[in-house]
Amino acid sequence: MDKQRVTRVELAAWGEGDFWLLERANAPEMTDHLGGPESTEALERRHRRYLEMAKGGMFRVVAVDGGEGVAGRTVGSIGFWEREWRGGQVWETGWAVLPEFQGRGVAAAAAGAVVEAAREAGGHRHLHAFPSVDHPASNGVCKRAGFVWLEEVAFEYPKGTWMTCNDWRLDLWEATEATEAAEAPDAATAPDAAE
């Protein structure tokens, strides 16, 4: 039976009870492109960081659709956070989709939702994603979500482990500027201020 696609998701703010999701995503098949599984202590520190994040946010991804047994379930995680990059501050995003929900469009739907969350948060013009060059699924998500590929970069993750990643960037202001321009009154039809 074909898996039904998930086209809509909701982002639920990361909570105290969400540690299980970090544990599930810490499997070798889920961390192969990230330097491998982390220790329990490292996961606990990550959980605390997510709970105490002052800028940005971490979320559980909850499917809105996708068929019986999928809608309403937590299917992964995604977030955005502040980082220094190329001499300035940007937002960075990253995600994890649980194995049983992979291949259904979850990551692309979640990426679209996190773009909106980062846009609403303001503060930075660009949202970056840095998937491994060897991870075609995550690179495909970036492309489907509207990110633009910039270049391959050396990236340290986790600390002490270097990998080659693609730098994907999305301009958060571009869509906002286009929307504002479309909503602005047309000069030809705008009332004359002198009348």
TrEMBL record:
<feature type="domain" description="N-acetyltransferase">
    <location>
        <begin position="9"/>
        <end position="168"/>
    </location>
</feature>
<protein>
    <submittedName>
        <fullName>GNAT family N-acetyltransferase</fullName>
    </submittedName>
</protein>
<dbReference type="InterPro" id="IPR051531">
    <property type="entry name" value="N-acetyltransferase"/>
</dbReference>
<keyword id="KW-0808">Transferase</keyword>
<comment type="similarity">
    <text>Belongs to the acetyltransferase family. RimJ subfamily.</text>
</comment>
<keyword id="KW-0012">Acyltransferase</keyword>
<dbReference type="InterPro" id="IPR016181">
    <property type="entry name" value="Acyl_CoA_acyltransferase"/>
</dbReference>
<dbReference type="InterPro" id="IPR000182">
    <property type="entry name" value="GNAT_dom"/>
</dbReference>
<dbReference type="Pfam" id="PF13302">
    <property type="entry name" value="Acetyltransf_3"/>
</dbReference>
